[in-house]
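Posting for a labmate who doesn't have an account.
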Amino acid sequence: MADAQELVKDIEALADKLNAARNSIGQQIIGQQGAVDLSLIAMLSGGHALLMGLPGLGKTLLVDTLSTVMGLSSNRVQFTPDLMPADIIGSEVLETADDGSRAFRYIEGPIFAQLLMADEINRASPRTQSALLQAMQERSVTVAGVDHKLPAPFHVLATQNPLEQEGTYPLPEAQLDRFLLQINVDYPDRDTERDILLATTGTATAKSTQVFTGAELIAAQNLVRSMPVGDAVVEHILDLVRACRPDEGEATDLVRETVAWGPGPRAAQALMLTVRARALLQGRLAPSSDDVLAMADPILSHRMALSFAARAEGRVLSDVIADVAAKTSQRKAAA
């Protein structure tokens, strides 16, 4: 009983701290509250996020503000077609000592930061994109057969322009799956855009302040994993993920008709973590089915693919996910 009371106390204290972090981020990021919350959810869950949106919507500013508010060391890599893997993970150089002896020394690349911003990741070649795979999954890089641990916590927040723009390379499925969730950054509404104009074109601009430290973020991530999840929420997660696989017996008719391949077990793991983080961000002690529905699109949209015929018909993956989410909710309510 005492442990449960202590857990409740810790969750409530963290919820207050997260509210302060959101307010601090809001000093620089006007609007885009959904993108801000999803970014915080990704960091609370210990994962990486892929920010999708056209240029000029504040993706880079959001990542930069997060590094300040969360108290993390950060680096930025501008991905270009001529970027090489060594430009990210580092390389060994041959040095000559004063006595004439020579030895190789490893020089760390920009990936050695607690928060790495991979700007326009889909503009780099597939070879360079794949250099992030081991780092994102194992929190280490291997150079000349030697493993080098990355700092903790370690998060990659990558921005990506829509694939229909020229000069982009689609991310491979294996790398997409390494991102915990996908965040769609949309155009602001008229009132928000007016506020942005007034706040950013004057002589003074607001600044965000630090709220967390790296150690406090790690403690928060451990607390998220300690939050209880009810059996009904677990079953809802399983129903949703399995219904998105066209070869499963639980798949909906729309999924069988339109989806080429569906999400794997990592999607269910991501939902288990992110529904807890979302509940915590909203000051609740445990997640609900509403959290599952809210996180369905960010978790599943980059872990599924439409068939060629469905794309030719103009189908949209988000509509398929929404249909599956609605049907699984109806089944759950009827059960």
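Reply:
Got it, the structure tokens are right above this. The chain has 15 helices and eleven strands.
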